[in-house]
Task: structure prediction
Amino acid sequence: MRVVALYRGARLVVVNGEWSVSGSGEPAERLRDIASRVDEVLDELGPSDGGPAHVLAEWLREQGLDVTTVRDRPLPRGVVP
Amino acid sequence: MARARLSWLRAALRAARDALREVERSKRADQAAERRRIEERALPPIGDPDVLRIVDALSGLSSELYTGRLLEEVGPVFDRLLRETVSRAGFMESDPRAQAIIRETQGYIRSDLFKWAQGAMLAEPLARDLVGGMDTGTFGTPLYRKVAAKYGVTIYDAERNVRTTYTTAAGSTELASLKRSGYKFKTWVSSRDHRVRRKRAGRVDDHSSTGFDGQTVPVDEPFVSPTSGARMMHPGDRSLGAPGVEIYNCRCTMVGSVTADGRGELGDSSAPDETGHAANEPAPPPPPPPVVDPNRLDGARIRDELEKRLGDLDRQLAELDAESTGAWKELTRHEGEGYQEKKAAWTAAKERAADARRAANMTRYQALVDLRVLTTSKAARPVVNVRLRSSNPALPSIERGLALWANLVGDSPEVLAAIRARPVDLVFSKGRRAFYESRPDATSQAPGGYVMMGNGSAGTVVHELGHYLERVYPDVTASSIAWRNARTAGEPLVKLQTLFPGAGYDSWEVTRPDAFVHPYVGKDYGNRATEVLSMGLQRLMEDPLKFARDDPGHFDYTVSVLDRIRNGGPP
Result:
């Protein structure tokens, strides 16, 4: 999975559940606070909730971030999610 | 020279024993307080929520000494011993050669001691660091870096120590689970692959079939290595003095059995009990036949009981969750002024809600055990392969999910036979959507295959292994399809993408939403699978009362399937 979100010049990148924030000042601090809940959001997801990156992106949008990249790994053929 | 140094070190350690004991005594008072703190912040338990916590396992290692204080406390003792030895060898104290010998030998000893202290890293201080890591959400590489920096070791050593410590903890917890489940014997099981340590030249650690693997002993007695003589209560146990060579990088586990040959399982009617009678033989005098079989599960009765037991709990949880959500909204709505105060308020509210949720999970679990929805069997647990490192932070929740699933299945002979014929692998890839893929082949009818764990939550494990159950029981799949079709008769198929745009569903995922707890329950896979059982089991484990209130029909059907799996008969 890969999600990239922006907030007033600061950037949050989440790759396979690991996040990092670049930028400085209050926007970066706010992004870090939001990012600290990424695990929480991902942990609450079940297989019935869809793609983790997409669900996380929706949540980040709800937090007021500008989401620029959303990518989930496709399911292999024939599996039961 | 190396052998002489080793002799020196041994002699010196013997002589310094009193000083070392004094160090240990002085720490004891602090340890009690530290232990309480660790227990309060203990890692999520593996297995039953109320079995030994990880810290109990770690505290078995507390006799080791702190790395930093070792040289500081015992250094003067070594200096005195050195001076006496040099003097006995005929050197005058003022002789520069004597000073050189003392200086060089001090260097050797300090170096050896430092290495010894590095080996002693698997100790209570490390336990505190790991618990502290959990406390602050530090896992994986950042945690290894922290440990490596603190102990002055390489990140590889730190990673190995952290991983090994978790293995020790898991072994101890498993032992406690076996005892609580009533097992009389335990059997050592290695990973049984080419990486298992075997007896070879110059080494005595052997965890293969000629060593520990397959050994069955009474549950209260240690396994004894036939090659090294090391005694261990469980894989990773050092409490009886097993050397590090038996511990480090160990991937072994153990299983419970009720007979000394390691074959019986709890509930196995052919296994003799302590009197030598098979469990299914009537004991004199024969007990009167029960009017209602207490092992049969009745959905309506369970729903009523859950309402009585958990009604208040759910209300309290909802209030705390609302408080936490409100504090978060306040924080994100009014950034800038008073931000730090609002952040502190949110953090406090979040912790209160999380504490309450942990306590609620325990209460729910106990209620499900009391109502016999969950058994206390772990029979199926050890034969599912968890393909991830023991230091993986997702392991506790995966282990918990696995234990819950094993407790749901109980001693189902069909499931045990299927898993033994072809194991199921659990693999983990963070951030990936979970799924189950069976791998049928010509050698066996058993479905086998693997489960991609997704986020590794306990609910996900139960969900995906629910799909596995459908493969083991084709009649359950057929009845689930019939039940779903009856509920959704006349409804059109809808794409999940249409219902939840932007949620990342694939285009082939279609459902009939009905009034299920989630539209996903009505998903249509043709005749190969359903989501009825998986979603039902997941909801049953995550929040049984909410499930019972939201969809009593689905709740009752899920319970009836469990009854069929455990007790036979139609679902």
Notes: The helical segments of chain A are 25-35, 38-43, 52-62. Strands of chain A lie at 2-7, 10-15, 18-22, 66-71. Chain A has a mean pLDDT of 92. The radius of gyration of chain A is 13 Å.
